[in-house]
Write a structure and sequence with these properties.
The chain has about 280 residues and is an alpha/beta fold. It contains ten helices and seven strands.
Length: about 280
């Protein structure tokens, strides 16, 4: 993200979640706030989608919907098991905390101050109230750390917590990815995380899907938000287990969509995104 500007990729993700509500059947992920919080025309294509294969654009949109649905399902299951702290890392225009307003469940939204200020403006414009259970955690990583920001916001490291970390890891260096996963695993109680990552784009050089992904990567890089980190499934499993996550579940975009009854119209590729659930117990 460029200094002083809201995240353009956060806007693109919000666009995909909102457009899914009106364009895709069957709907994977239902979010009655997605259209309201976006506050911008939804029928027009995202800037990053112009000229790309529309089947692949739809596949990406369905993956974004599916990862949000999986995160929602994980939040519900985790709360049912007794966890009362949920942290949304790189929250963007995510609406999880506004659709789950149980007084005894504490939500923390972490994001860059500029993007968070933009979100708060959108919430106000859309007439969406901020629940008392939500704490905003604005962090400029050039001046603070995730640990310090969440400590100041009141996260209790002695109690279990779920971290939802979607659409972020690819934009971070490997060191930052490792540091974040290590911090999450450092809870003295159970910690869980749902996050996604990309396979190396060059892993299938002759696959047209990979070529389209590269075109999208070039566009987000030109917007000042380049993809920096890539992993293979065996590699990310090894990293997670070394950091203290004995339970790791990894699904490719195609496998995740099949979970919700969707068979992709495009040929699956290992170069696409994967979604991971990991737990320290």
């Amino acid at each position: 993200m460029q200094v002083g500007r809201r995240s353009r990729t956060a806007l693109a993700v919000a666009h995909a979640r909102a457009y899914h509500q009106i364009a895709d059947e069957p709907r994977i992920f239902t979010d009655p706030l997605a259209l309201r919080i976006l506050g911008e025309p939804v029928l027009s294509a995202s800037d990053f989608d112009h000229g790309l294969d529309q089947n692949l654009v739809r596949h990406r949109r369905l993956f974004i919907a599916a990862r949000s649905r999986c995160a929602d399902d994980t939040v519900a299951a985790t709360i049912a098991r007794g966890t009362r702290q949920v942290v949304i890392l790189g929250a963007g225009l995510d609406t999880t905390a506004y659709r789950n307003t149980s007084a005894d469940v504490r939500f923390f939204e972490v994001d860059h101050p500029v993007t968070q200020e933009w979100k708060r403006h959108r919430l106000s414009e859309a007439g969406i109230p901020i629940p008392a259970s939500l704490a905003f955690v604005p962090i400029d990583f050039e001046q603070s750390t995730l640990a310090a920001g969440l400590a100041d916001a009141g996260l209790d490291r002695t109690r279990s917590a779920l971290f939802v970390w979607l659409g972020v890891a690819a934009y971070l260096t490997r060191t930052s990815v490792y540091d974040t996963l290590r911090y999450i695993a450092g809870h003295s109680a159970t910690s869980e995380v749902v996050f996604d990552y990309f396979y190396p784009l060059a892993s299938t050089p002759h696959d047209p899907t990979a070529a389209q992904l590269q075109a999208r990567a070039d566009r987000v890089a030109a917007a000042g938000e380049p993809w920096l980190s890539f992993f293979t499934a065996p590699e990310i499993r090894k990293v997670l287990q070394s950091l203290g996550y004995p339970r790791v579940e990894d699904r490719s975009a195609a496998k995740l969509l099949e979970t919700y009854g969707i068979r992709p119209a495009v040929h699956p590729t290992s170069a696409g995104p994967h979604l991971v659930y990991a737990s320290t117990t």
